[in-house]
Amino acid sequence: MSWCFGGGCDRRCFIRAGIGTAAWAALPAPLRSEATAATELSVVVRPPTLFAGIRGPITDRAQLEPRVKALEAACGDSIAGPLTHIFRFDTEVEGFDSEIGFPVSAPVVREAIATHTLREMHFYSRRHDGPVATLRTTAETLYDYMNITGLSPELELVEVYRDHRPGTPLGGRVDVMASFLAWPEVYRAQLERALDRDIAVAVWAGGEKITPHTPVDPRCDWVAASIGRLKKSSTPDQQFDILSRVALVRPPEEIQRFKAIYDETGSVEAVFRAQEAKLSATRTGGFVDPPRVDGTTLHISKVPYNREAYDRATSPRERRKAYCFCNLIREAEDPKVDPIFCYRAAGWARQFWEPILDVEFTSCAITHSILKGDGFCAWDYRLPRRLGA
Questions:
Q1: From CA 350, how far away is CA 359, in angstroms rounded?
Q2: Domain that holds residue 298
């Protein structure tokens, strides 16, 4: 079994095509499975976990077998949990960014094996009892379920091989775990950090009823009400501070190549050009609204989730469903959420630009938003110091 790709894989491609098929880019998005019920899924919170693994791109599952043998020999009595395979997305690799390894009780130091701590993450999990070749089908049901609940995928897909024994091929019972951004929990923590306690409690009101299984429309209604209360109870800079920190965690590997360009050239425009070249080769296409900098303001926008559908869109609803990466806004029937919610998208871009420019953004203005009828979402960061072109 082989896979076919060029230039790496992001989570959208994986979700649409899954594992175990060639020419994945030509496959359509899986249809939402209404048969997927909460009773078939569990929610797993992975605590910070010491993990010894071998990480490297793969294009075929057969490439994992020698890695597993090396790990079993090196980890020995330090193994503290089942064999675990992690896919990471939106990183600069050819093929799939793969890490296979074991939770361990102590660091393992061997060539090609790295011991590190996996961060806490939330997952939808489902048991897979069929062939390894059909793991993609189980993964698809988890991502379909995120559409139903309006929670967005984080950048890990995990396979936990419960029946694995040393010297045996991969197979048996597998827990397939798709990570999601636990938005309400992160949002509450940021409210409590940035606001007075009584204000944070008032803004959060009703959040205790929201669970990982809450459907998208009731979830969106609560988010809209809470964001409305936040807007009345805080300054724009506080809103940016809170909501920009309620975003997916961006992989540092994706940032380093662009930081090297800026460090070498000192040119923001050079980074813009490199981004455009990369994005133009993906299903998003390049920027609808080109980024720009005037020395004191950095203007950034989002690319569409599905460029082909976006270009075909003839109504605001079709445009929203083709443009928004956020499952909540994309999948809700009629999201009436204040555009300051787009500070979350600004938070994804913030993680990119702050380390590249070596600055901290404290002020940002939403200039365009799908949520107020614009054709795209964009914002202006106020730069703490003047930049050259």
A1: 10
A2: 182-389
* Shared-domain flag, residues 119 and 188: no
Number of domains in the chain: 2
Residue position matching structure tokens 């975003």? 247
Task: Answer yes or no: is 2 within a domain.
Answer: no
Single out the residue in 112, 146, 180 at which a domain terminates.
180
Q: Determine the Cα–Cα distance for residues 265 and 259; give it in Å rounded to an integer.
A: 10
134 and 113 part of one domain? yes
Distance CA(236)–CA(230), nearest Å, equals 10
Predicted confidence at residue 282, as pLDDT, reads 86
Q: Answer yes or no: are the C-beta atoms of 291 and 299 closer than 8 Å.
A: yes
- What is the rounded distance in angstroms from the CA atom of residue 109 to the CA atom of residue 76? 12
* DSSP per residue, 94-144: SSEEEEEEEEBSS---BTTBEEEEEPPEEEEEEEE-S-GGGHHHHHHHHHH
The pLDDT tens digits for 37-74 are 445 899 999 999 999 999 999 998 889 999 999 999 99
N residues, the chain: 389
Could you tell me if residue 98 is inside a domain?
yes
Do residue 24 and residue 143 come from a single domain?
A: yes
- Per-residue tokens: 227: 């964001």
Dig out the tokens for 185 from the structure. 């929990």
Say which CATH number the domain at 174 has: 3.20.80.10
CA separation for the pair 231, 240 (Å, rounded):
11
User: Would you say residue 265 has pLDDT above 90?
Assistant: yes
Name the residue among 203, 197, 198, 222 with its Cα closest to residue 211: 222
Same domain, 129 and 273: no
Verdict on whether the full-model pTM lies above 0.85: yes
In this structure, the strands spanning 153-161 and 174-180 are antiparallel
pLDDT at 15 > cutoff 70: no
